[in-house]
Structure formats: C-alpha cells, structure tokens
Write a structure and sequence with these properties.
With 413 residues, this protein is of the alpha+beta class. The protein is built from 13 helices and 14 strands. Strands 3-2-1-4-7 form a five-stranded mixed beta sheet, sandwiched between helices. A four-stranded antiparallel beta sheet has the order 8-11-12-13, with no helix packed on it. It has a three-stranded mixed beta sheet with strand order 9-10-14, with no helix packed on it. Strand 12 and strand 13 form a beta hairpin. Helix 2 packs across helix 3 and helix 5 packs across helix 6. It is elongated and about 155 Å long.
Length: 413
C-alpha cells in the first residue's frame, strides 16, 4: 500500500530530474510502481476491500460456537484437539483468533464497599512476617501478627506471636476485647483452622468449640467468610500492607517483647490517630463514637482451660506449646496434668496444684520455678562449711596409746 505522502515524494523527485530507476532506489519501490504513480498524477490511492479468502476453520466454526455456548470455559487447546479429530488441518492460532471474537465478553462487576454499623462486626486475621532479632543475630525467625479491626471505625489492635495455635488465638481475643473496652456483635474470620473446623454439603460451618465458648462469654458470635471470597474481610487484610511499609520495614527489634512494645506505640501514636483514607475520618474519633455500641465487658475476664497430660522429663520439666516448665523436686509421678489458661500454665499432681508459670512470648523458652530445685541437706551442709574447715588433728598422746596397744599385741603372740 503506497500512501499519499510517498506519491508526493515520487513526483517531487521527478521534478528534481531523477530517473525512474533512481526514484525507485530512493523510495524502495518497484520501477513499475513508480511509473504507474507518475502517470496517474497526484491522486490519493483508493483501495477496496480484499476478496475474502477461504479459511480452513470455516467448516468448523458452527461446531466451535455451539461448544462455547454450551461450555463457555472450554480451553482453546481442548477445542483444537476436538476439531482435529473432525478433520481440521489448520493451525492452533486460527482457532484462538476465532474464539477471541466468538466468546461472550465477561461482565466485570464493580466492587461494592461493605460498611457495618457501629459495634456490629470486628474482623480478625493473621499475617506472616520474617525478621532477625538483634538478641539472636543471623537467626531468621517467622512471626505472626494477630490483628483485630473494628469494621465501623477501622480501629486497629494487634500482637505479634510465635505461632497461630488456639492458646494464642484465645489469649489475643481476650487482650483485644480488653483494649476495646467491649466486644462486637460478631467476629469475621477466614477459613483459619483455629476458627473454622469444616463445612458440610449444605454450607453449615462448624466452628472451634473453644473459640465459640470464648465469644459467647463476651456476647459475640463467630462468622466465616465465604470460601474463596477473602475480599469480604478486606478491612483487616488491607492494613497489612500499611503495617509492613509504615511500621515493620527498616526497623530493628531486640526480641519479641520489644517488637510488641514498638508496635503498640506505633499503633497508638500513628495508626489509630490518622485520618483513614477510605472512611475519610480520624480513626480514634470514630472509635470513641463506636465504643458506646460495643457489648460491655463481663465482670471477670475469661479464663479458658485446656487440659492435657504431659510426661515429666529427667530434668524435671514438662513441655507445653514448645516451651519447658519446671515441676518441684518433690514430684513423684512421671505423668502430670497440665491446664493451659490464656496467660498461665498450671501443673497438677493427684489433683493438687504443684506449679504455676506465666506463658512466655515465643518458643523454646524454659521457665524454672524459684523453689523447684532444692539442694540436698547433706550437700547443703558441706557448702555452708568454711573453705578452711578441715578435720582436726589428733594429739600425740592418742598416737602413743595406739603404739603401745599395737606393741602389746605383738608381744602376746
């Protein structure tokens, strides 16, 4: 196709005295083409539609339309294999070109923002972070951030932990409700194992009984996101990017305790006093209004109890949740009963409490009771003796008497 600009160039070069061959070399056209446009003069080219070519796929287009109408998601490769069996001898791209124009365009639905009334809903989730504590250089650890966001005000609470176990989940819920000063009517979860145990064919969700008991104690109820619809929990998932970029990156932390102290300060001084970009209002101000709609806290804090049996090691320790806790030296049984509370571990022998330990942050920690390792009495006396105390030397009269007795025994033989 020769455009009008090149035709003008051909006539201009002819006026400059160039031959047809020279013009052809300059413009990259055939000499016959140059002569044709010189004879026509300055006329815009007129190109008519090309005669349609016969396509190898044409006999099979009806079959392809019928298949994608019945099964819109059939792949091009699948349809290509099917019509090859019917005798199609063309290429794969000819089929994909046809399918691209023949398929019905999918209707894209716009996202609808879901707002909740005050005190109605909180959203809970975990996010994974990896870091290196300065107390343990060159050791990279995986930590989990439990966060709760109130749906109406977007008020944020969170705590980092070493795992996502049920004890951690219960402990974080209690602390979050305590920080809120109340509880919401429902708490929304994804399909996290500590919250949702399963779903039957009718769509009835089975929740973890321990979590249900805790929420019921605070006047709340669990609710699970629809499967593969994590966007329904976006109010708690969207802040993770904000937390990672605004708080987590380019900071150093000594240990888990320091991490939570810094996060709590950032939450109170930066995150909750800010103007929320979506809600367009100060988070703390909206939270102050929402607090009146929260269910008041019970008189006594929730005290969940998970009872298990544990074997006492030869060092007098029991393992619970990845940490070791001591029992007294007077413990006689090799298997004891352990009760896990949200904030402490209680150890029983024959129904009697023999040890009580606070739960430490993290894993692989040892908790040794201050009175659990007593020094034996005989060893204690030896340790209490002065270093210079030695057995007193016997007198010379003693050795003289021993000598006379030995000499007398020899004479009598």
């Amino acid at each position: 196709m020769v455009k009008l600009g090149r035709i003008v160039l051909i006539h201009d070069l002819k006026r400059q005295g160039l031959s047809v061959s020279a013009i052809a070399r300059k413009t990259g056209l055939n000499r016959k083409t140059v002569r044709k446009y010189l004879e026509r003069g300055l006329e815009a080219p007129n190109y008519g539609p090309r005669e349609p070519r016969g396509r190898l796929r044409t006999p099979y287009e009806g079959y392809l339309r019928e298949r994608i109408l019945q099964f819109p998601d059939l792949s091009g490769r699948r349809l290509f294999r099917e019509i090859r069996k019917l005798g199609y001898e063309g290429g794969y791209t000819g089929i994909t070109d046809f399918l691209r124009s023949a398929r019905l365009a999918k209707q894209i639905l716009f996202e609808r923002r879901f707002e909740t009334p005050p005190g109605h809903q909180a959203q809970v989730d975990f996010a994974e972070f990896q870091l290196e504590f300065t107390d343990e250089p060159s050791v990279w650890r995986k930590v989990w951030l439990f966060s709760m966001v109130l749906g109406h005000s977007r008020w944020l609470w969170g705590r980092f932990g070493a795992n996502q176990k049920l004890e951690t989940v219960l402990r974080c819920h209690i602390a979050a409700f305590d920080a809120c000063g109340g509880a919401t009517g429902e708490v929304l979860y994804d399909r996290m194992k500590t919250a949702v145990l399963g779903e039957d064919a009718d769509g009835v969700v089975t929740y973890n009984p321990a979590l249900v008991a805790l929420l019921n104690y605070y006047g709340s109820a669990p609710r699970a996101c629809k499967a593969y619809r994590a966007k329904t929990k976006g109010k708690v998932e969207r802040p993770y990017r904000y937390i990672r970029q605004d708080f987590f990156l380019s900071r150093s932390f000594r240990n888990m305790e320091d991490l939570n102290i810094q996060f709590d300060a950032w939450r109170q001084e930066i995150a909750n006093p800010r103007v929320h970009a979506t809600a367009n209002r100060v988070v703390n101000e909206a939270f102050a209004e929402e607090q009146d709609s929260l269910t008041p806290l019970p008189t006594h804090p929730y005290d969940a109890v998970l009872t298990v049996e544990r074997r006492v090691s030869h060092e007098g320790m029991v393992s619970v949740g990845g940490n070791l806790y001591s029992v007294p030296d007077t413990t006689r049984k090799r298997v004891v009963e352990v009760q896990s509370h949200p904030d402490k571990i209680r150890i029983f022998e024959d129904g009697k409490v023999i040890a009580c330990h606070p739960i430490p942050e993290g894993r692989n920690r040892r908790r040794l009771g201050p009175r659990h390792r007593k020094v034996p009495t005989s060893l204690q006396r030896q340790l209490q003796q002065p270093a210079s105390a030695v057995v007193g030397q016997r007198s010379l009269a003693f050795y003289d008497a021993v000598g006379r007795r030995l000499a007398g025994s020899e004479a009598s033989r």
